[in-house]
Amino acid sequence: MRPIGYLSAPELATLLSQPDAAAAVRVVDVRDSDYEGGHIRGCTHVPAHQFLANVGAYAARWRNDQRVVFHCMLSQVRGPKCATRLAATLADGPPGGPDVFVLDGGWSAFVSGPARRGLCEGVDPRMWGGGQRDWGRQRDGRGVV
């Protein structure tokens, strides 16, 4: 089986902030009902059970992608399981295909960084902190920047 890598939330944010790099990354959110309340802008939402039931079709569809990054809420079960299944399916097919990653800490780690909030959409601030006024703003030690 092909190895699976891990990307931190800041590493993924850096990739998504650069147009050329962002075009080469497919972020796959495998959360189920916990998808409500926000997600990474431009992600592909495929609940884990749906992905696992159709992994061959997704492997064929994403074969020409450069990177596929999976995540769930914490990336402890669903995200890594889906990443492992995709890597195994790709290894059984023709050579090539994307590098497969898991977002370390999942959606929870990504959304918790104020600097990354601009890369999110559909976020309910009541669920993720900061309050309505502060959502989308970054803070340093001196106040809002």
Explain what you see.
The structure is a single chain. This protein is of the alpha/beta class and 145 residues long. It has a single domain (4-144), classed as Oxidized Rhodanese, domain 1, CATH 3.40.250. 39% of the residues lie in helices and 20% in strands. It has a 5-stranded parallel β-sheet. The longest helix is centred in the middle third of the chain and has 14 residues, at 78-91.
Please state the overall shape, judged from the principal axes of the Cα atoms: globular
CATH topology: the name is: Oxidized Rhodanese, domain 1
Number of strands: 9
Q: If helices are DSSP runs of H or I spanning 4 or more residues, what is the number of helices?
A: 8
Unreliable stretches (pLDDT < 50, length at least 5) are 131-145
Q: What integer is the average pLDDT?
A: 87
Q: Strand share of the residues?
A: 15-25%
Strand order of the largest sheet: 1-6-5-2-4
- Mind telling me which CATH architecture this is? 3-Layer(aba) Sandwich
Q: What is the CATH homology-level superfamily?
A: Rhodanese-like domain
Major beta-sheet overview: 5 strands, parallel
Number of structurally distinct domains: 1
CATH class: Alpha Beta
Task: Encode the helix/strand succession as letters.
Answer: EHHEEEHHEHEHEHHEE
Content-based structural category? alpha/beta
The separation of the N and C termini measures 45 Å
Radius of gyration: 16 Å
Query: Helicity level, as a percent range?
Result: 25-40%
